[in-house]
Write a structure and sequence with these properties.
With 443 residues, the protein is of the alpha/beta class. It has a domain at 95-121 and 229-407: Rossmann fold (3-Layer(aba) Sandwich). It is built from 17 helices and twelve strands. Strands 3-4-12-9-10-11 form a six-stranded mixed β-sheet, sandwiched between helices. Strand 5 (147-151), helix 6 and strand 6 form a beta-alpha-beta unit. The chain is globular. The termini are far apart.
Length: 443
């Protein structure tokens, strides 16, 4: 069976463009593009057959099909030659039940999709394997691409640098100086990327990298490039697969540049179109209160985007005031009965710490999503009889300063951490240790 996919304008302008063409926006109207698949060809295979095929590949040792992305090759980038796939067994991440946390916030079934357990520690791997693989194929076929470049607040740069290094392609990372964690900064440095730290914010970095992509022969790797979203949509497919091809009632996902929101919607929509699921979930996008232009639009009946100057937030990866994928996100949320919620700095930090007590180790961005979940539960928007999935976008190990600062009470943004936990310092005496043990266990 021959499957095909191509770029088309999200506004419906005429024209279709191959996935290996260097193009990021519609040449007619300037809007973003999206990847459109040949649904008739995909429908030639029954839903039961797709489920069986995906089940056989899921977490298998047969490379690259054991990848959570490339196990869905026909639904992602069907014209990509498998010989050009650059994979690090991304995806296939755990959908973790957190019953104690769910009970504490008044819900019945809450699960956390652990995207941060992927190779570079975030869900960005899912999109970058697709983009870098396609660039590898483009270079092999003679396209003059000097490097792949991205603007980043951390996780995108780590994923790009790792996959580009594996492919033997130069990576260029443009990031806001002093505004990402040390762990995030060291990842692209360690894998040999050219890292440019600029005295601006993410939105300023984004302007620069778009200009470089236009003038200097580098390929743009940010989420305005829809190749990235094709990999990221497999999160939705994995969630349904891990739930026995059932769709949760709610999915809560943190949002900054908003590409992940439209990717999530695209995954669920494709499954619905091909008969693998029978309904859409509702989607909540969670934003940090210091960087929440989508929430402002939502509260004004989906008003046009008004870019803001994002304030500093503990959730640094979503500190974005002018999201590139705004239109795509709104379209997805309208289709999925979506809502947008915000979290203050104290709310995101406390939610992250509360969830950690169920065995998680969450990043601050996941904390934003968890805080949104808690607020929706408190208002009765999400109820105890509904199943909710929270997308954890990155590993908490990238944000140890955030964790240490919280439990040491040193985060200026969180003057009274509700779930602070500190070591009990004791002399080297059995009675002191015993007394502390008994006091601690009785709490």
């Amino acid at each position: 069976m021959s499957y095909r996919a191509e770029f088309r304008c999200i506004a419906g302008c005429a024209g279709a463009y191959p996935l290996d063409q260097v193009i990021y926006r519609c040449p007619t109207c300037g809007d973003l593009l999206e990847v459109v698949h040949d649904l008739e060809a995909l429908r030639a295979v029954s839903a039961a057959q797709w489920k069986r095929l995906f089940g056989e590949r899921f977490r298998s040792v047969d490379e690259p099909w054991g990848s959570g992305v490339w196990g869905k090759h026909e639904w992602v980038a069907p014209q990509l030659d498998p010989a050009n796939i650059v994979s690090m067994l991304e995806g296939g991440t755990h959908l973790m039940k957190v019953p104690a946390y769910a009970q504490e916030i008044g819900l019945g079934d809450v699960r956390v999709k652990q995207c941060g357990t992927s190779h570079s520690g975030s869900f960005k791997d899912l999109g970058m394997t697709v983009l870098v693989s396609m660039v590898k194929q483009m270079i092999a076929r003679g396209r003059p691409i000097r490097a792949i470049a991205c603007a980043s607040t951390g996780d995108t740069s780590a994923a790009l640098a790792a996959y580009a290094a594996a492919a033997g392609i130069r990576a260029v990372v443009i990031l806001p100086r002093g505004k990402i964690s040390t762990a995030q900064l060291v990842q692209p440095l360690a894998t040999g990327a050219l890292v440019l730290a600029i005295d601006t914010d993410f939105d300023g970095c984004m302007k620069l990298v778009q200009e470089l992509a236009t003038k200097e022969g580098v390929y743009l790797a940010n989420s305005m490039n829809s190749l990235r979203l094709e990999g990221q949509k497999t999160v939705a497919i994995e969630i349904a697969q891990q739930l026995g091809w059932k769709v949760p009632d709610w999915v809560v996902i943190p949002g900054g540049n908003l590409g992940n929101v439209s990717a999530l919607g695209a995954g669920f929509e494709l499954m619905l179109e091909l008969g693998l699921v029978d309904k859409r979930p509702r989607i909540c996008v969670a934003q940090a209160a210091h960087a929440s232009p989508l929430h402002a639009s939502f509260t004004h009946d989906w008003a046009a985007l008004e870019p803001v100057k994002a304030k500093q937030t503990l959730a640094s990866a979503i500190q974005i005031g002018n999201p590139v994928s705004f239109k795509k996100a709104v379209r997805a949320l309208q289709k999925f009965e979506g809502v947008v919620e915000v979290a203050t700095e104290a709310e995101l930090a406390d939610a992250s710490a509360r969830a950690d007590r169920s065995g998680l180790f969450t990043c601050p961005h996941t904390g934003v999503a968890l805080a949104a979940l808690e607020k929706l539960a408190a208002r009765g928007v999400i109820t105890a009889d509904q199943r909710a999935v929270v997308i954890s976008t990155a590993s908490g190990l990238k944000f140890t300063d955030f964790k240490v600062g919280y439990h040491e009470g040193k985060l200026a943004e969180v003057p009274q951490p509700r779930f602070r936990n500190t070591p009990v310092e004791l002399p080297d005496r059995y009675d002191a240790v015993r007394d502390a043990l008994l006091r601690g266990l009785d709490r």
